[in-house]
From TrEMBL:
SUPFAM superfamilies: MFS general substrate transporter. Signal peptide: none annotated. It is a multi-pass membrane protein. One of its GO terms (cellular component) is plasma membrane. PANTHER family: MAJOR FACILITATOR SUPERFAMILY (MFS) PROFILE DOMAIN-CONTAINING PROTEIN, MAJOR FACILITATOR SUPERFAMILY MULTIDRUG TRANSPORTER MFSC. This is Putative MFS-type transporter. It comes from Gracilibacillus halophilus YIM-C55.5. The chain crosses the membrane at residues 12-37, 49-69, 76-100, 106-127, 134-153, 165-184, 196-216, 222-244, 256-281, 301-322, 329-348, 354-376, 397-417, 429-455. InterPro entries: EmrB-like, MFS, MFS_dom, MFS_trans_sf. The lineage of its organism: Bacteria, Bacillati, Bacillota, Bacilli, Bacillales. Its main location: membrane. Keywords: Cell membrane, Membrane, Transmembrane, Transmembrane helix, Transport. Residues 11-460 form the Major facilitator superfamily (MFS) profile domain.
Length: 482
């Protein structure tokens, strides 16, 4: 038993470390963009692709992960994903020009997109129902803490050592993770060798990729810009064909029937709103501080740091509470904090202090820590064992789409309101634009709070006996590998 627990802990550590550095890279480049623009002589619209392309390729890879988890062993998939990520990190760190740097980011994100769904699936397989909350709390730490600390770490490292150092900090961690995993990683997912359906992969890539690009383009170029409209048309048609094909296939690449199970659609919707809130606020605060108030990128990162630390401390604790009381009240209370924090950001002015920004962001992130993993675990707990990988992939795909959609909408609202404010003679149009964007985010968060009232409590003890028995069968079968 002690050996089994030790090996299980090793797998958890490896997956957490790999996923942490993978997700950290989503926001790691935000405050490093200005010096890269200067060094490589690129425009702001081109430079922002260093962040956008990472999320775009992530969004394409995540739906494919459910198929990959069934096709390859845990060990094969983890080692391959981390090796691809490490190679991309090396390419980006050594990039002689912007094209190579962007290529490195694409390669990074191909590996990173596999890590989070793989981690969630493995954790749900190797832990019994009554311990899932605690371990998924660690997943919440990764999802919330990593992207929140990215801008802070990036600002400090870039200012002190240069932007290339960001990649050379990540690279050795990835290599050590790969070396240890080579010797100790065990296979815990069931390999069913589903048939490769190239058309599904193509439609998925054009569908999710097209929509993600469309929403990103809308934030940068406007909703009626030619690239935006073309991307939406291609994405919508491809995604519709992809969904219809998955419903007809006996062994689909991504199982959309997960939405027919209990509260899963509700928990996915709330998770989308929560993740949109993380990325949205982390986008708007630096824009407000640097464009409207002339704060530095490093100061913007410092405002986000306490909230990130609170999330890191709270997520494991939230997981333990989930195991005892279930997810309903955690999610309701968490969304209450998020909603209040969002509305407090709608009254920014030219004298708003740094302590105010720090406290309100921390308040909001306190709520995020109570929402992200409890709501995801509540939904995934209701799925039968053969759909867990598909549920995890679907949940993460929808969150990525929400982050891209939400950021595009919020940036568009901000710029539109700023333009209208300038025309009306407002002395602080950028501040007005930020307030309007936060107002939209507040309303969206309030909708999330209302949805949370419909979640039924999902303590492990409350799970239907047949569901518990089915999940425990997975636990028993995989304990053989320990």
């Amino acid at each position: 038993m002690a050996e089994m627990v030790q090996k299980r802990s090793t797998i958890v550590t490896l997956l957490l470390a790999g996923s942490f550095i993978a997700i950290l890279n989503q926001t790691l480049m935000i405050t490093a963009i200005p010096p890269i623009m200067n060094e490589m002589d690129v425009s702001p619209n081109s430079a922002q692709w260093l962040t956008t392309i990472f999320m775009l390729v992530n969004g394409i890879m995540i739906p494919v992960t459910a198929f990959l988890i069934e096709r390859f062993t845990t060990r094969q998939l983890f080692l391959t994903a981390m090796s691809v990520f490490a190679f991309g990190t090396l390419v980006a760190g050594l990039a002689p020009n912007f094209v190579f740097l962007l290529t490195g980011r694409v390669i990074q994100s191909m590996g990173a997109g596999v890590m989070l769904p793989l981690m969630q699936t493995v954790f749900l397989m190797i832990f019994p129902v009554n311990k899932r909350g605690s371990v998924m709390g660690l997943v919440g730490l990764v999802i919330s803490f990593a992207p929140a600390i990215g801008p802070s770490l990036s600002g400090w490292v870039t200012e002190a050592f240069g932007w290339r150092t960001l990649f050379f900090i990540i690279l050795p961690i990835a290599i050590i993770d790969i070396i240890i995993a080579y010797f100790v990683m065990k296979n815990v997912t069931k390999v069913s060798k589903p048939r490769v359906d190239p058309l599904s992969i193509i439609l998925s890539s054009f569908g999710f990729g097209g929509l993600l690009y469309g929403f990103t383009s809308a934030g940068n170029n406007g909703w009626l810009a030619t690239p935006t409209v073309i991307a939406f048309i291609i994405g919508s048609i491809s995604l519709t064909m992809f969904i219809l094909r998955q419903i007809r296939l006996k062994h689909p690449m991504l199982e959309f029937r997960v939405f027919t199970y209990s509260i899963f659609p509700l928990t996915v919707s709330i998770g989308m709103i929560a993740f949109l809130g993380i990325i949205g606020v982390e986008t708007l605060i630096p824009l407000y501080m640097q464009e409207a108030r002339d704060f530095s990128a490093f100061e913007s990162g410092l405002v986000l740091l306490p909230g990130a630390l609170i999330t890191g401390l709270m997520s494991p604790l939230t997981g333990r509470i989930f195991d005892k009381v279930g997810g309903r009240w955690l999610v309701i209370i968490g969304l209450s904090f998020m909603t209040v924090g969002s509305f407090l950001f709608t009254i920014l002015d030219d004298k708003t202090s740094l302590p105010y920004l720090i406290v309100v962001f921390a308040l909001r992130m306190f709520g995020v820590a109570m929402v992200m993993m409890p709501v995801a675990t509540s939904g995934l707990n209701k799925l039968p064992k053969h759909l867990i990988a598909h549920g995890a992939a679907m949940d993460n795909t929808m969150r990525m789409v929400a982050a891209s959609v939400g950021t595009a909408v919020l940036v568009t609202v901000m710029t539109t309101a700023e333009t209208a404010s300038k025309q009306s003679g407002d002395p602080f149009p950028a501040i007005y634009g930020a307030n309007m964007a936060f107002l939209v985010l507040s309303i969206i968060t309030l909708v999330g709070f209302i949805l949370s009232l419909f979640i039924k409590n999902t303590r492990p003890a409350d799970i239907a006996e047949e569901d518990a028995e089915e999940i425990e069968e997975v636990q028993e079968s995989h304990e053989q590998s320990f």
